[in-house]
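Q: I'm a student working through a structural biology exercise. My instructor gave each of us a protein and asked us to get a predicted structure, then write a short paragraph describing it. Mine is AAA-ATPase At5g57480-like. I'm not confident about reading structure output yet, so if you can add a plain explanation after the tokens, that would really help. Here is the sequence I was given:
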Amino acid sequence: MKDIWTTMASMMGVWAFCQSILHIVFPPDFRFASLKFLHRLFQWFSAYIYYDITEIDGVNTNELYNAVQLYLSASASVSGTRLSLTRGLNSSSITFGLSNNDRLVDSYKGAAVEWEHIVTQRQSQSFSWRPLPEERRGFTLRVKKKNKQVILDSYLDFVMEKANEIRRKNQDRLLYTNSRGGSLDARGHPWESVPFKHPSTFETLAIDPVKKAEIMADLVDFANGESFYRRTGRAWKRGYLLYGPPGTGKSSMIAAMANFLGYDIYDLELTEVNTNSELRKLLMKTSSKSIIVIEDIDCSINLANRNTTGSGANSGGQRNNYDAASNGIEDDGNSITLSGLLNFTDGLWSCCGSEKIFLFTTNHIEKLDPALLRSGRMDMHIHMSYCSFPALKILLKNYLGFQEDELQKELLEELECVIDEAEMTPADISEVLIKKRRDKNNAVRELLVELKNRVGRKRGKSRERNGDEIEDEEQEKRALDSPKDGCDQLPETCNKKNEGENGCDDSDNIDEYD
Ligand SMILES: Nc1ncnc2c1ncn2[C@@H]1O[C@H](COP(=O)(O)OP(=O)(O)OP(=O)(O)O)[C@@H](O)[C@H]1O
Ligand SMILES: [Mg+2]
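A: Happy to help. First, here is the predicted structure for AAA-ATPase At5g57480-like. I'll explain a few features afterward.
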């Protein structure tokens, strides 16, 4: 034992002596250069290559760092023993992350990669426009040199894509609005956002199940159709027009679509947009995987006829048929045009970003210019109609918890008999069901009474109208038989051709459509 200690002491003495000789013979610069050389030599012979992904790239946040953290959170939650937990703003779930100096092995297309999370204290605060965090964080990615190409070519893109997917899944939907007019926020953004928490889903939506399935299949095809759209040279976007009377579920359908696809909603208030270029800027600032909504499009702008601009379809920013008087706005030539809106939905700018849905709603489809309705702009026209019998069954299930076989057969038959003729909207029916929901059976009976009353009133009115029409016809006949001086015009009759969903008493619509 004593011998061992003596040998070790003498070895350490020799080592100290050699070190002092090295210090004298080789100056610090030389030592540094030789260390660098040794490092290079090591790298040359090493089978691995290392990539550092730091949290802050200069003064900007490195998006790749955040993406890697999210991506690894999916695997870390299963395999890690010490994990960091985070919950982001507007996020409804917790994400896991690697703790300091933890490692995780991943594989991609047969290539194994190793991630290490490295956290060090920042030595000194160098000058910067914004304060930097005290810790310097980063990931080091270790890959075999032979796999370098596959990692650079597609693995990092794959990581970014997966991270976006996880972010979308974890984060609440956002509802954006341009209600600030043309002004921008501090980051130059024209949209304001709030978390979107609308509970409407396709399950709660009371529409014909066949139509519902068709819409859902169309949405799925769209969301999965990236390669199809690329192959056919089409912009990856789709337009839906929802039309029908008030209270038939157009807004609820928008919310259901957003919840189904997990998209954000941009609720575009056209009356807040002053020029075509402002409209374009708004479009440019929308993200992919989003639904751009213009509600009540017929009320937002006069869309009767784009040719009245006298300026062609692509004349963004020029004056048009904006009916300043009827909208109570000074016509100062600073207004959006129909052609601007057409370009917004199907022009070159409409495809900035991708995977976007344009969704317009209206109570009066007949008021819209055919150019706006054509395929490519509004690919699918969805008629939201009065409550049908299959839709009623959905409402009864949702509001009262009734399954179809729980209801008396006779009651169901009676409901089926009157529901179409009563022309009651799902909104009106839900109101009846909400009020009486504590007494389920009574609620259905009350609804039946209400439906029957409506049918009675409608039949009464139609009898009155028929009576008036017969009277009118007789008067007309009498007038023709014995024309009086200065009365050579026929009495005005209702233009059935243009009769909208709400009957023909809306003479304004008919005039404008003609
Ligand atoms: N098809 C439906 N399925 C389920 N609920 C509906 C449906 N239609 C309407 N409702 C109920 O009625 C209310 C009003 O519906 P919604 O706002 O979607 O109608 P709308 O067609 O957008 O009306 P408007 O044309 O006036 O904007 C909603 O809160 C919803 O609960
Ligand atoms: Mg609505």
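A: Here are two points you could use in your paragraph. The chain has three domains: 48-123+132-170, 174-383, 389-465. The longest strand covers residues 111-121. It's a good idea to check both against the output above yourself.
Q: Great, thank you!
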